[in-house]
Design brief:
CATH architecture of the largest domain: Sandwich
InterPro entries: AraC-bd (IPR003313), AraC_XylS_family_regulators (IPR050204), Homeodomain-like_sf (IPR009057), HTH-like (IPR037923), HTH_AraC (IPR018060), RmlC-like_jellyroll (IPR014710)
Number of domains: 2
GO molecular function: DNA-binding transcription factor activity; sequence-specific DNA binding
Keywords: DNA-binding, Transcription, Transcription regulation
Organism: Cohnella rhizosphaerae
CATH topology of the largest domain: Jelly Rolls
Radius of gyration: 23 Å
Number of strands: 13
Strand order of the largest sheet: 2-9-4-7-13
Protein name: AraC family transcriptional regulator
């Protein structure tokens, strides 16, 4: 089962975070958790079982699973691992100031007692691409460990800001993880340089009306295939990216030029001023006229 959340709707709540130094052969599970969870291996080694997959776990390995996904971790006898665990809800309200939820964050069940439906995947972003949080990925310790160490530290605090700090930390981690994975895919994707050219050309054509046939002309792929490759690499469709570029150009014209809203709409070929106004307000958060007036304020 997949849980898809738009980036703009991401509003996570960290419900538990901890560092655990495991003894030789220490194991937990099979179990499942009520929240989404990251397990990060800081030191040592062991084994991870998530759903039907088995992984070796060593320094830098990050694991993710959703609510109801059975999992088990077992430390090595000679070099047991040190783990960080972080439980979270992707969307939720922050607890009361200073409140720490001490309820055990896991349910331990076996066999037929495991839930029949599990949220096995968390996908962030729109339907054109989206970022599926990976079940397992190896990360540089210098990138990942400070996030989880800070989350564990914040969770132990009882001041008025510790829940807010946890939320901000997790949003930053997820966005940076997304960008890191996107860059890695771009380096491995043989079409990456061609698709980057498409992005450049879309920015250059932002003052025109969108034409889907550009994709085949610029890539020599069928336009549907080119759009699918673009969405996989960048997490949004070429048309969505083009609209973003067009609106950035509109914001620049509204702020810097003596153009009316109607003139701006016509210059950028939005089709109609009504369409331009609706799109601008939905994506920018205010009407073009209001944005134009703000550009003349200090």
């Amino acid at each position: 089962m997949e849980l898809r959340i738009g980036w703009e709707a991401l509003n996570p709540v960290v419900s538990y975070a901890n560092r655990l130094a495991c003894g030789p052969g220490f194991a937990f599970g099979p179990r499942f958790v009520r929240d989404h969870q990251f397990i990060y291996t800081a030191e040592g080694k062991g084994k991870a079982e998530i759903g039907g997959s088995v992984y070796g776990a060593g320094p830098g390995d990050l694991f993710y699973y959703g609510p109801g996904v059975p999992h088990r971790f077992e430390a090595d006898d000679e070099t047991p691992f040190v783990l960080y665990g972080l439980h979270f809800a992707p969307v939720g309200e922050l607890p009361a100031t200073g409140a720490v939820p001490y309820e055990l964050p896991v349910d331990i069940r076996r066999g037929s007692d495991l839930p029949p439906v599990a949220e096995a995947r968390l996908v962030l972003g729109d339907a054109a691409g989206g970022f599926a949080v990976p079940e397992h990925i190896a990360l540089p310790p210098a990138f990942a460990e400070p996030f989880f160490a800070s989350a564990a530290q914040y969770f132990r605090m009882a001041d008025a800001l510790h829940h807010l700090r946890g939320r901000a930390l997790l949003v930053r981690f997820l966005t940076e993880l997304h960008e890191r994975i996107r860059q890695a895919r771009a380096e491995q994707d043989p079409a990456a340089s061609l698709l980057e050219t498409v992005r450049t050309r879309l920015r250059e054509q932002a003052g025109e009306s969108y034409r889907r046939e550009w994709l085949s002309a610029w890539t020599h792929y069928h336009e549907n295939h080119a759009a699918a490759l673009f969405g996989r690499l960048y997490g949004q469709s070429p048309h969505e990216y083009f609209l973003g570029c067009k609106l950035e150009l509109a914001k620049q014209l509204l702020a810097d030029e003596n153009l009316s809203v109607l003139e701006t709409s016509e210059r950028l070929h939005f089709g109609s001023v009504h369409h331009f106004t609706r799109l601008f307000k939905r994506r920018v958060g205010c009407a073009p006229g209001a944005y134009r007036r703000m550009g003349r304020m200090v």
